[in-house]
Amino acid sequence: MNDEKIVIRISPKGEIIVEGEGFQGKACDAALDPYVRQLGAAQETRRKPEYFRQVSHGRIVRVGDE
Amino acid sequence: MSKVVKVGLEIRNPEAFVQALRDVFGEAAVKVSSAKSVREAVEKASRGEGVARRAWGGATFRDAVAVVRAGTNYTVRLRKEAGGVLEVRGSIPYSDLALVAREEGVELVADHYTDPQLITAIRAAYVRRVAEEIARRQGRRVQDPVLKENGEIVVIIR
Q: Which of B66-86 are b and which e, b meaning 16 or more Cβ less than 10 Å from the residue's Cβ?
């Protein structure tokens, strides 16, 4: 959990943004979802490149090979 | 960053909201419907047994779960990102600030004279209370909220 953090921004207009930072892959979902569920209804979700990065388990995954 | 979610704030944890109101206004200023718990107060309010029975403009407080009376003074201190502390001072204007149970859920009702900075500070206090409960279960820690120059309040959980 070294550089992992969850950032919640509350705008003066009442918009809430929940961001995961430093997470690799789907660990972000597990960390963020409880905050999103408790705070209200998710209106828009944007995933960052890190989200799609494979967590290394010592094997190479090729995408696009037949 | 790996994921960004925009959330429409809904008060799904009235207990945490009452705690947040007490954080802002102090223990004594927040009157909760006579019940053992906020959950019970919500149930009572749904049967029309709220703490306040008055109307102001279009808002009916018949189903209020918790009320902060008009005239209540408040001082909210927010740490600024640029350094220093912003103090938001004032008193609740003409009508009470009420946490009202409705069919769709619980919502905060305030009149349009209420300082928007106060409303943002209450939202931030609520988000912090909710975040603290979840962070405790995750083994994380919630840092003090920080006010940015654009008026946004940021709560960080590590």
A: bbbbbebebebebeeeeeeee
Structural domain boundaries of chain B?
14-154
Residue B53 pLDDT > 60: no
Nearest neighbour of A36 by CB, restricted to B5, B139, B157: B5
pTM of this structure: 0.83
Q: Is A59 inside a domain boundary?
A: no
More confident residue, B6 or A60: B6
Query: Which residues of chain B have a CB within 8 Å of the CB of A26?
Result: none
CB contact (8 A) between residue B153 and residue A29: no
Nearest to B142, CA basis, from B156, B121, B122, B124: B156
Contact A34 B155 (CB under 8 A): no
**What ipTM goes with this model?**
0.83
Residues of B in contact with A22 (CB under 8 A): 1-2
The pLDDT tens digits for B86-134 are: 999 999 988 788 888 777 778 888 888 889 889 999 999 999 999 999 9
Per CB-CB distance under 8 Å, the chain A contacts of B116 are 12
B7 pLDDT above the threshold of 60: yes
CB B34 within 8 A of CB B70: no
Using DSSP, state whether B46 is helix, strand or coil. Answer: helix
CA distance A28 to chain B (A): 7
Domain boundaries, position A34: 5-52
